[in-house]
Amino acid sequence: MFGYIIVNKQEMKFKEFDLYQSYHCGFCQKLKEQYGKRGQLTLSYDMTFVILLLTSLYETDTKESACKCIAHPFEKHPTRSNEFTKYAADMNLLLSYYKCMDDWQDEHKVNKRIMAGTLHGQCRKIAEEYPHKAEVMQDMLAKIHECEKRNATDIDEIAGYFGEIMSEIFAWREDEWAKELRRMGFFLGKFIYLMDAYEDLEKDRKKGNYNPFFQWKKEPDFDEKVGNILTMMMAECSKSFEWLPIVDNTEILRNILYSGVWCRYEMIKNKRQQQENKKEMDKNLTA
After folding, report:
1. Bridge partners for 84 per DSSP
2. What is the pLDDT of residues 41-51, one digit of tens each?
3. Digit-coded pLDDT (tens) for 49-83
4. Quick one: which of 232, 241, 227 has its CA closest to 270?
5. Which one of 48, 55, 170, 176 is separated from 6 by 20 to 30 angstroms, measured CA to CA?
6. What is the pTM (predicted TM-score) of this model?
7. How many domains does the chain have?
8. What are the DSSP calls for 86-149, one per residue?
9. 153 lies in which domain range?
């Protein structure tokens, strides 16, 4: 359910992309440092956005370094990390653990149960440090699971539960910025959930899994309808972002919010269109 909050590299300056990538690499290294290689498997660009957003808002001290890794084995590349890198690593691991357990209960995916088992001890410590956030994640994922079991048709309801999870993650602490951060995270979380459902529509149909878009899939304006909903989610998210007093890294953050998030959408939409065209051609050939 992650990987949608990315940059549009084609519309970025080289120095901006390098800066962004250094935070992502710092995040990857922090996951390895704190939680080993299993922790690195949970790496996502969505949490890199959280790191960059909170760093830009709170203007914390950031450590610059360099390292080699599997992705860059021959020469060192720059990394940046700070207190939000550690926070994002904790939240990422905690959410990954609960999501693995949810997948195990929902679809009995053995690999997810094994992964959850390897993360259990570390996540218990994180939950002790952030008891309220851990409780919110568990409760909201349980509500999502319950909606899936009863084939809920209220898309706003079920997407809202994942929105509450991201809302809790975005609100690093309760201060004057918490309200807008929560609102921003809420709508971004709804966007992530709905994008994931949109992408998995055909896969869920074949596997017999729940998908909130099944009720609309035969409508002639389905893709346009989904696009309008996603646009509304990002409009509300971006509105809260613009209220925040962010000066640093604004171009990178705006690239993600106004352009990057739509890269995956366009790819999914085009793929769906190609599949529909192929079905129509096959139908005409057999007619």
Report:
1. none
2. 888 899 999 99
3. 999 999 999 989 999 998 877 666 667 889 999 99
4. 227
5. 176
6. 0.91
7. 1
8. HHHHHHHHHHHHHHHHHHHHHH--HHHHHHHHHHHHHHHHHHHHSHHHHHHHHHHHHHHHHHHH
9. 130-249+265-274
